[in-house]
Design goal:
heterodimer; A: 190 residues; mainly alpha; Four Helix Bundle (Hemerythrin (Met), subunit A); 0% strand; B: 103 residues; Helix Hairpins; 3 helices; elongated
């Protein structure tokens, strides 16, 4: 009985240490995302942030969503960003420009204000005497049943949203010479 | 697998991530970095949903995260198309240069 209790305590500590290390990695890489000058570096740090967030999802007992996070976010959406950065050919001069834009005079005010709000949030959450529970694993079967039974209308709405997104992106992104008005034809930008 | 992580710490992490995303949106002038910060904020909201869902051992949190994922994909595709058009018209990604609406 005592050995069983001891193994549970060891397991508890191990899971908590895992969680804290992963949370630190997530926070650090997110801070790096919002402070980098080069867009590609920021993108790589965002990928690390997404991967560590998916480890946190796995620790919280959501393995299906952890896989989706890696496949869709770190796989598909980040590739979209990389393609756009390649198309725009953002390189060293963008980094220099960012360095000129990101002066302390600009960011110090919002950072102080949001730090005050964050301190209040931390105080409120850590002083609340909430009982702690063991988190249960919710497997993909339960998620699928819930997704396609009570949330079916949500799935259809998401499908319509994705369709609208694809059509909108194709419409906005098409290459076409824009003539705002027939009287403005002479002074259109080259 | 029972995971003995207290729920308020996870909510705290989600809040800190959300605040970091807001700070990124506010302090940046490049529109690509603003879009990246919006992604960070969406992830923080998803983390809060996942934590609540595993606290009550219900699949609803994960379902909501899947909806957030679909929404983020649509938002990113439209947003990146808009960024491409902005760059073609203004030769810059500075949001201060976009003054046509006189806002």
């Amino acid at each position: 009985m005592r050995i069983r209790q001891l193994t549970y305590i060891v397991y508890y500590l191990k899971m908590n240490i895992f969680f804290y290390i992963t949370a630190f990695v997530t926070l650090f890489s997110t801070i790096m995302v919002i402070t980098r000058h080069n867009p590609v570096h920021a993108l790589l740090y965002l990928v690390i942030s997404l991967l560590s967030l998916s480890v946190i999802f796995f620790l919280l007992g959501a393995p299906f969503v952890a896989l989706l996070e890696i496949i869709i976010y770190a796989g598909a959406i980040m590739v979209l960003f990389i393609f756009v950065i390649m198309l725009l050919n953002l390189g060293k001069e963008t980094a220099a420009q960012e360095k000129a834009w990101l002066k302390p005079r600009i960011w110090i005010g919002p950072v102080i204000l949001s730090t005050i709000l964050l301190a209040e949030l931390i105080y409120l959450i850590t002083t609340a005497q909430l009982p702690s529970y063991n988190l249960q694993t919710v497997d993909s079967k339960a998620v699928a049943i819930s997704l396609f039974k009570p949330y079916l209308i949500g799935v259809e709405l998401a499908a319509m949203l994705l369709m609208a997104g694809v059509v909108g992106a194709a419409h906005i992104g098409q290459q076409k010479k824009t003539v705002l008005h027939r009287f403005l034809k002479e002074e259109e930008p080259q | 697998m029972n995971t003995p992580i207290s729920i308020e710490i996870v909510m705290l992490l989600a809040g800190i991530l959300f605040v970091l995303g807001i700070v990124g949106v506010i302090i940046r002038k490049n529109i690509i970095f603003m879009l990246l910060s919006v992604e960070v904020m969406l992830n923080a909201a998803g983390l809060a949903f996942i934590a609540a869902g595993s606290r009550w051992a219900q699949p609803d949190g994960q379902v909501m995260f899947i909806f957030i994922l679909a929404m983020a994909a649509a938002e990113v595709s439209v947003g990146l198309a808009l960024i491409l058009r902005i760059y073609q018209q203004h030769k810059s990604l500075d949001i201060d240069k976009l003054k046509e609406m006189k806002g």
